[in-house]
Amino acid sequence: MTKKIVVTGIGATSPLGGTARDSWNALLAGETGVRPLTQDWVAQHELPVTFAAQARVRPEEVLERQETKRLDPSAQFALISAREAWADAGITDLAPERLGVEFSTGIGGLWTLLDAWDTLREKGPRRVLPMTVPMLMPNAASAAVSMALDARAFARTDVSACASSTEAIANAYDHLQAGLADVIIAGGTEACIHPLPLAAFASMQALSKRNDSPETASRPYDVSRDGFVMGEGAASIVMETEEHAKARGAKIYAEIAGGGVTSDSYHITAPDPEGRGAASAVLAALEQAGATADEVTHINAHATSTPVGDIAEYKALFAIFGERVKSIPVSATKAAHGHLLGGTGALEAIFTILAVQERQAPPTATLVDQDPEIPLLVSAGVQKLGAEPQLAISNSFGFGGHNSVVAIRSYEG
């Protein structure tokens, strides 16, 4: 029998705020997390892009000094968001063997890896720190979360580029249905605001180069969009069966109703221009949710602000919803927080959870001149959702042709 899977805790540290609620409030207020970079290495390397969406609250302001020394920034962000979500869920009596972790990253401990390479090159092998390997490995974040919260059911790591943390949530749904745990902390993290990835993404023409207007550089669906903005941070949600949540008197934010994961098998970086793999992921999520396309009331779009990607996603949505897609409120929140790569899906899942709970779709704040080839219902302001039960989808797509979608229902008790 299919179980109802609910969300009972949320946590985030993002370019918009140091907590999930602060991030959400800033998003609704139309604030931006995109700012000029002030680090010396921007000028040192003559980077073509001089701005990014850095986490608003730095990890060293939250974590113990020993934690910042022994964890890569990506794992630091993960730990902060997971602790917030866990405290929010209020779980006090759970066997460690029934708690699982499903955490993701697109790249992993990049800062650790590249700093260690600099040390090796400049100072020799004896100066490379012994903690280098456990800090750089992609599963460091899930390991850190599992050890901090004593989760012994499993500590899994999902790596599928920018689709990673949405896939983590979809997999957590499956693992709860299979009875592998009673509670799972699912999420994603990334910390790649570093000269090398900025130079590399800029070289492949993926990043916006609006150095004169960083606050409005991420422009999903706008005719003037020219690429994404690099972001960083992490987000976590606590998922459990409705039965388990009710038994302990938990507050419930929303229901994770299903997930869909597919592959384009088209190109290592470009999406299928017709959006076929993305459309299949949406259908899979709706099928698992036992829902039809006619029931969807809100869409959180992947919408990275790239000329090709935004149109491909629109074609995928049109293939599923037809003309009705023009009347479904759509949010493209990367306009405010940039693209957190492997962490972005979890952050946007939280925004979608709060959207269906509070009946308001967050703004796409930088939209000025909407592309006529993408006639979606997008607004620079908050869009009100109806009082009726809500069903939303949240999309994430990544290099390698990865497509992940989760279906999220308002919880009606």
Describe this structure as you would to a colleague:
The protein is of the alpha/beta class. 34% of the residues lie in helices and 20% in strands. It has helices spanning 20-28, 40-44, 65-70, 73-89, 110-123, 132-136, 140-149, 164-177, 195-203, 242-247, 276-288, 307-321, 334-337, 344-358; strands at 5-13, 35-36, 51-52, 99-105, 154-158, 183-190, 233-241, 254-263, 298-300, 329-331, 360-361, 377-378, 383-384, 391-398, 402-410. The strands form 3 sheets. An 11-stranded mixed β-sheet has the order 5-4-6-7-1-8-15-14-9-10-12, with helices on both faces. Helix 4 packs parallel to helix 7, helix 8 packs across helix 14 and helix 11 (276-288) packs across helix 12 (307-321). The mean pLDDT is 98.
